């Protein structure tokens, strides 16, 4: 036997013995208990060393997003990679992009019904089921990415939303954020709120409701369906995320006006949905692994967007894209309509109000703080950009 092969087998054998000892709480020596020696405890029936084996668990994940978007769909892949690594391959998640198992906008239904164990999606796609689900992602003129994460993870937001998701037999986990989004791609210039009347635009969630109130004709399309609709004139405009993803989807080829900011998505949080019955059957250490992996995926997604959007914007501008800022007239009209809708929903639905009121308080406090330190720095540092 070659020396390298011998050393490799010896290390593997030692690792197996150490793992068995750790799993049974036994080492090479102990005080006040039996000493099983270097080999560890032996089976009473065979005399062979006892081996601690983890249960094999295999889940399927369905996403609302196409595989080609390595930022959003990539979050699901990071989740699966981390779960497999931390469980030593015993807990695996097979990731499926939109359309492989169910269409992109049917993820919630698939998880609720147990078609899959886990889904990756944006909760504002399902406001028709419960309008308050929008707060799991974002609402217009709402929280930035950091503010949204703070509210969900430390401000009580996640607990409030999990109460709503229990109605759908789902546990939701924050799974990433895109950061502030762009206002989207338009085939013609939009100079005032009046220009929104009759505009056919793809936009989901509460942002779509606001656009509808301002006179636009709103459609909700999954990511893979947007380009052909824009190309054929089925829609006049679309929002998606930001430069990196938008470049991949090719919107600049059929619409040259690129508007900002995406006031309807200042910090949208993506989510992983887990079927509650499947979660209850998952070993507790696997639950901890999944929770940790979801947090890893969230960090990676935000970092990828922040790293890749700047260069992508430069490339788009090099393709002749015309960068346009929404007028104050549009921003003022949209903000007014947003808070009219929010207050109307809160007045009509006590459960909506139970989420909205704490969120509104958190927003007020966050804006006071960010409007002090962060704003002052940004206004000075970015003035030459």
Notable traits:
single chain, 385 residues, alpha/beta, D-Maltodextrin-Binding Protein, domain 2, 2 domains, six-stranded mixed β-sheet, five-stranded mixed β-sheet, 13 helices, 11 strands
Question: What would you note in describing this structure?
Answer:
This protein is α/β, with parallel strands linked by helices and 385 residues long. It has two domains: 57-177 and 268-306, D-Maltodextrin-Binding Protein, domain 2, CATH 3.40.190.170; 184-266 and 309-352, Periplasmic binding protein-like II (D-Maltodextrin-Binding Protein, domain 2), CATH 3.40.190.10. It has 13 helices and eleven strands. It has helices spanning 3-24, 72-86, 107-112, 145-153, 157-165, 205-213, 223-232, 243-249, 276-281, 284-318, 328-348, 350-370, 373-381; strands at residues 57-63, 91-96, 118-121, 170-177, 184-186, 200-202, 217-219, 237-238, 257-260, 269-275, 322-325. A six-stranded mixed β-sheet has the order 7-6-8-5-9-11, covered by helices on one side.
């Amino acid at each position: 036997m070659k020396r390298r092969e011998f050393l490799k087998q010896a290390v593997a054998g030692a690792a197996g013995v150490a793992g068995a000892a750790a799993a049974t709480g036994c080492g090479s020596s102990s005080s006040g208990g039996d000493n099983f020696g270097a080999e560890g405890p032996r089976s009473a029936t065979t005399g062979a060393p006892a081996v601690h084996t983890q249960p094999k668990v295999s889940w399927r994940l369905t996403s609302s997003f196409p595989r080609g978007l390595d930022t959003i769909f990539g979050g699901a892949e990071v989740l699966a990679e981390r779960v497999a690594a931390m469980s030593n391959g015993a807990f695996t998640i097979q990731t499926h992009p939109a359309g492989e198992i169910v269409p992109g906008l049917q993820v919630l239904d698939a998880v609720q019904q147990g078609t899959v164990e886990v889904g990756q999606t944006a909760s504002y796609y399902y406001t028709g089921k419960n309008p308050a689900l929008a707060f799991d992602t974002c609402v217009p003129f709402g929280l930035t990415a950091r503010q949204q994460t703070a509210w969900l993870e430390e401000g009580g937001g996640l607990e409030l939303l999990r109460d709503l998701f229990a109605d759908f037999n789902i546990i939701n986990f924050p799974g990433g954020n895109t950061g502030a989004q762009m206002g989207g791609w338009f085939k013609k210039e939009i100079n005032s709120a009046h220009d929104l009347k009759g505009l056919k635009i793809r936009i989901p969630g509460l942002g779509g409701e606001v656009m509808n109130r301002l006179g636009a004709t709103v459609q909700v399309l999954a990511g893979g369906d947007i380009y052909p609709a824009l190309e054929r004139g089925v829609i006049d405009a679309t929002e998606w995320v930001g430069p990196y993803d938008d470049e991949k989807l090719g919107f600049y080829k059929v619409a040259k006006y690129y508007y900002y900011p995406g006031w309807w998505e200042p910090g949208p949080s993506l989510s992983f949905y887990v079927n509650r019955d499947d979660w209850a059957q998952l070993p507790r250490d696997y639950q901890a692994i999944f929770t940790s992996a979801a947090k890893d995926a969230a960090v990676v997604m935000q970092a990828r967007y922040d790293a890749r959007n700047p260069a992508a914007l430069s490339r788009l501008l090099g393709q002749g894209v015309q960068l346009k800022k929404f007028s104050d007239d549009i921003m003022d009209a949209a903000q007014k309509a947003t808070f009219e809708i929010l207050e109307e929903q809160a007045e009509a639905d006590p459960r909506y109000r139970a989420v909205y009121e704490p969120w509104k308080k958190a927003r007020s406090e966050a804006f006071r703080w960010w409007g002090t330190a962060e704003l002052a720095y940004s206004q000075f540092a970015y003035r030459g950009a």
